[in-house]
Design brief:
It is globular and about 55 Å long. The chain is of the alpha/beta class and 358 residues long. It is 42% helix and 8% strand. The protein has 10 helices and 9 strands. The strands form 3 sheets. The protein has a 5-stranded mixed sheet, with helices on one face. It has a two-stranded antiparallel ribbon with strand order 6-7. It has helices spanning 23-30, 35-61, 104-124, 173-187, 195-217, 274-278, 284-297, 305-314, 324-338, 340-352, and strands at residues 77-81, 91-95, 136-140, 149-151, 156-158, 227-228, 243-244, 253-254, 258-259.
Length: 358
């Protein structure tokens, strides 16, 4: 790993779910010679910094509540158009039960929110993000050439991308599942967004974001590609996605984006001040552990590995400052209750990535 992403461990702070494109990647683009790449990245970085403050406040003080009918056994979606401005939520374009509109970004957002709701409801018996039927709101066309998508503590927000490196952020269902899972974490373990606990926060969003897409496609663990954000990169980019859970560190190697820095083993763990202590970087280690667990158990990943991870997230024993080892041990304890096959798969997975379980 390069020296510029090495540093020291940071003190845990309140949970602050971040945007899907990590700052280390945007920082690389912000140094590009081409202004059409450099300026959108710099603008996105500045906006993301301001949004992190708002998300921290929302995570600490909670949301403003929701309208009636929260217990409905179906999603309650509202999609708005910011019209390339910043004031949220923008103009209402489509609400629950309404037909497709001409704006494909609106339709993609609507479908992605629905796919995430259906996954949690059907596979894990969770009613929306908060478990109590929270309405799912989203805004599209956020600013000009905004290279990101994020959960702000209350709703989803999507940029259109710069059109050169990144395309429309509503196109990727695993990205939508990823960001909405930050909301699930916010309402459950509320993992501190720094260091190893922050990497676990990102890891859990990658896990369930991937499972949302796998469930929608009916894929088994063997059939899935285990990529996060594969629809986002434009054709000329030398890469397949933002991250690979199966093979961390291999998602991209591009002149403009740089080389994917994710480690796949604790021997390569990155100590850094950047990215809240490397939350998007070191998440590659537990990501590979989950993939290995799911691959060994086979079948649909949400039936076995996904349920173990979900029970750890929502079971009440996962502390906000958890590290990889404490999380791994909780997955082992949970796997014990599911049977010896699950236990063996969990032990083997964490051992393979260098995280002790007992």
């Amino acid at each position: 790993m390069s020296d510029d992403i090495r540093g020291a461990i940071l003190r845990p702070v309140a949970a602050t779910p971040c945007a899907i494109v990590p700052p280390h990647l945007l920082n690389h683009l912000a140094r590009a010679e081409n202004p059409s790449l450099r300026e959108p990245a710099r603008h996105t970085l500045a906006l993301d910094a301001a949004q992190r403050v708002q998300r921290r406040l929302t995570a600490e003080i909670g949301t403003n509540g929701a309208p009636a009918d929260r217990a409905a056994d179906h999603p309650q979606r509202t999609i708005c158009d910011v019209e390339h401005r910043q004031d949220l939520p923008g103009k209402r374009r489509r609400a629950e039960g309404e037909a497709d509109v001409r704006d494909t970004s609106v339709n993609h957002a609507y479908d992605g929110l629905g796919a995430t709701f259906d996954f949690y409801r059907q596979t894990l018996s969770r009613l929306s993000i908060d478990g109590s039927g929270l309405p799912l709101d989203a805004s599209v066309h956020y600013l000009q050439e905004y290279d990101n998508a994020f959960w702000d503590g209350e709703q989803m927000v999507f940029g259109d991308g710069d059109g050169r490196i990144f395309g429309d952020f509503t196109q990727s269902p695993d990205v939508i599942g990823h960001e909405l899972t930050h909301g699930v974490t916010q309402y459950t373990a509320n993992l501190a967004y720094t260091g190893q606990s922050g990497a676990l926060n990102e890891h859990l969003s990658d896990v369930f974001g991937s499972l949302v897409e796998q469930y929608a496609k009916g894929e088994t663990a063997e059939q899935a590609n285990w990529l996060i954000g594969e629809e986002l990169l434009r054709p000329d980019v030398q890469g397949v996605a933002l991250r690979s859970m199966k093979a961390p560190g291999t998602a991209y190697d591009d002149d403009e984006l740089g080389k994917d820095p994710q480690p796949a083993h604790m021997d390569d763990f990155v100590h850094t001040f950047a990215d809240n202590g490397g939350v998007h970087i070191n998440s590659g280690i537990p990501n590979r552990a989950f993939y290995l667990t799911a691959a060994q158990l086979g079948g649909h990943a949400w039936d076995a590995a996904g349920r173990i991870w979900y029970e750890v997230l929502t079971g009440g024993e996962l502390t906000s400052d958890a590290d990889f080892t404490s999380f791994a041990r909780l997955t082992l304890d949970t796997a014990d209750a599911h049977g010896p096959q699950q236990r063996d798969a969990v032990v083997h997975a964490w051992d393979t990535v260098g995280v002790p379980t007992g």
